[in-house]
Input
Amino acid sequence: MYPHERSLVIEMKDKPFALIGVNSDPLENALKAVKENELNWRSFQNQPEGSKKAIADDWKVRGWPTIVVLDAERKIRYRGHNGEKATEVAKELVEGMLHPADKP
Amino acid sequence: MKALLLLLPCLATPQQAQEPPKSEVSPAQARYDRLVQEASETYQAWVKEIRAWSKEAEETGERPPNQPVLDYSPFYKRFLSAADDFAETEDAVPFLVWLVKNGLPRRAPEGSLALERIEQNHLASPGLVELASMLPNLVYYLDKEKATQLAAKLEQATPSIKVKTWATYVLLGDTLRDEPIQSAKYQEARKAMMALIEKANDRSINRSIRDEILVREEFAVGKVAPDIEGIDLDGVAFKLSDYHGKVVFLDFWGDW
Output
């Protein structure tokens, strides 16, 4: 997934789009992964040290990766495990915002 | 020496008589335990071999020839023959269950055969509880129609609430996943499913079936997602709502 996400971030750089991660690794592993793979997006720590609550539990995530695409109003537009499908949905939403007239 | 050895059993006899009777383990149970033990030894031996093989692959940078293969085929035959010896009795069930669990995912013909036997003779066996959580996977191994038919029969015949719950999930899963949440059809299926889930009160059922229902309802397309307040990997606090006005691709990820 890394190359796909990385290029998506670059492609959408100047558009109303953000790729936000929720990372479930121990912090040192997450930082290592970011460095080694030159990951270019910001991530929440799923469960920071000492915290009782995990974001993934609140969101009832049971499989990784899980992707949720949210529109500008934080309405859910996609939830699932298919990165390509999620990307398609996200791009369509962004296009719809940039070119509202084209909307059917 | 020989004479002494012959004597030993006689000497041991009075003591054995005082021990609790060994009849608690039936011949079928003893045979099952032995087979499972042997299968597990075979599995462990294979794990050792495959570890050595991967290590060699890692060290040399290429795949060595003769990747070790786990060969359960002798066990398929032996479990099936044991099931035949106890055919149509409850004692056959553990052998058949083992075959379904281990043989079916590996596409062994004995796995399908075992499932057929269960369908013919053992639908009401309490021993099938061991297969309960595997029922939704049957659609991958059988065709969907066959899996659904089996689930329908089980749902009727089983005395086990867990089996009934999983079987019902096989039957209602499509409705629960695909029908609009507001529709009468969905609501009816949900009601039936939730009643069973509550009665079963089982962790794995709660985590898979109940959560799937709740996730679909809480996180359905069109719902407003909850905000997230957290800290990033550098320890800086931020919120999901900071990105209001943008499309967000929220990616639950891990490096593994």
